[in-house]
Amino acid sequence: MCSNSRRISRNARLTIKRRPTVMNKAINVLWKDILGYEGLYQISNTGLVLSKSRFDRLGRYVSEKIRKPYSDKDGYLLVNLNKDGVKKTFKVHRLVAEAFIPNPHNYPQINHKDENVKNNEASNLEWCTAKYNCNYGGHTAKQILTTSKPVLQFDLHNHFVKRWPSTAEVGRYGFNQGNISSCCNGRQKTAYGFVWKYEGRKSHE
């Protein structure tokens, strides 16, 4: 009897030691139920998604574990949640923001303050407008660098005049950017008495 009692006690201690490696790994980790998935999944303020221990629809016991996220084409971390046999995909940063960050102005988007979309700690996230999110930090500069095409300016005799870094830069000097783009794309032959071509593109004439 005592032997069995000691064995049970020893097993209980081992169970307690092993059990919540996921829950007690970091002292400052806070957990909250994911809205609509109460009792099934929790999200932490550090961006971890926990699947709670439970019995599934077939009566099988499913132990508690951290869900492994995966990335979409833009690098954002995603996680799949299951309820009543229905699987849905969520962005991890949105789960964190909805659980831990107040949104009194009902802003629609979430910004990563350090511009690292994989850093989903609550302290790195903020609710914001689409405009704020688009213009935040180096996003605008990076977008311009990625999408801009150099433009070559010629006179009507096809003599080279100037190379411009982009149609936007031409527009800063009083030319209508749309007209310059139309010329570069072959929709019109000239604009403002000049021929405009994207660098590396053959003439449309």
From TrEMBL:
Gene3D superfamilies: 3.90.75.20, Winged helix-like DNA-binding domain superfamily/Winged helix DNA-binding domain. One of its GO terms (molecular function) is hydrolase activity, acting on ester bonds. Keywords: Endonuclease, Hydrolase, Nuclease. The keyword Nuclease applies. Residues 91-133 form the HNH nuclease domain. Pfam families: HNH_3 (PF13392), NUMOD4 (PF07463). InterPro entries: His-Me_finger_sf, HNH_nuc, NUMOD4, WH-like_DNA-bd_sf. Residues 31-82 form the NUMOD4 domain. Signal peptide: none annotated. This is Endonuclease.
